[in-house]
Amino acid sequence: MITEVDINSTPMLTPTEVLEHIWCPRFTWFMNVQHIPQHEESRYKVLKGREIHARRETENKTYLRRKIGVIDKQIGVYLASPQLRLRGIVDEVLWLRDGSLAPLDYKYTVPNERDIVFKTHQIQIRIYALLVEVVYGKKVNKGFVAYIRGKYKLYEVPVNSEHQEEIQLILDEIFATIQSERLPKRTTQKTHCIDCCYRNICV
């Protein structure tokens, strides 16, 4: 459980770090135990994503997606919770007509060929949903992903207690890795190793 972790020495994780742990648990060990950075600043998609997020904060600032019940929004919101040990910047926090809130994130990619939200993007939205609930004290029943290279097509991501428990289990596993400092098993997906930034030092 989170309460067993030394909060003075355990970092607050970003949604990206959680997704990297799912991709391969050794990301957590290299980054948070060995403190070896990824140097992701040179990767094209990372740079492009940052450029787009910066632009989104200045364009269409007053536009509201009324078709999905949006009555207000905040753009580029930094969220952090010592309780969850999570932090991150969500592109938009939406106020919905039913009184609930919803996170929205833009992705510089094309939609899934099956016309559904990628699993990693679902998890990211549900992490933001946890943060929004704690930070704002409002119920979150769903979130949204907009695929920029799919003409900004919008997809809804359901959020419920089972989803939140799933996220919590992943977080517990990450904190356990950090606390124990034991090298976890690498991913069983060999294809994940091909483009991994740690492939040359992973034993």
Automatic annotation (TrEMBL):
Mg(2+) or Mn(2+) required for ssDNA cleavage activity. Keywords: Antiviral defense, Exonuclease, Hydrolase, Iron, Iron-sulfur, Manganese, Metal-binding, Nuclease. Its EC number is 3.1.12.1. Residues 47-202 form the PD-(D/E)XK endonuclease-like domain. One of its GO terms (biological process) is defense response to virus. Its cofactor is iron-sulfur cluster; Mg(2+); Mn(2+). The keyword Ribosomal protein does not apply. It is an enzyme of class 3 (hydrolase). One of its GO terms (molecular function) is iron-sulfur cluster binding. InterPro entries: Cas4_exonuclease, CRISPR-assoc_prot_Cas4, PDDEXK-like_dom_sf, PDDEXK_AddAB-type. Belongs to the CRISPR-associated exonuclease Cas4 family. CRISPR (clustered regularly interspaced short palindromic repeat) is an adaptive immune system that provides protection against mobile genetic elements (viruses, transposable elements and conjugative plasmids). CRISPR clusters contain sequences complementary to antecedent mobile elements and target invading nucleic acids. CRISPR clusters are transcribed and processed into CRISPR RNA (crRNA). This is CRISPR-associated exonuclease Cas4. It comes from Thioploca ingrica.
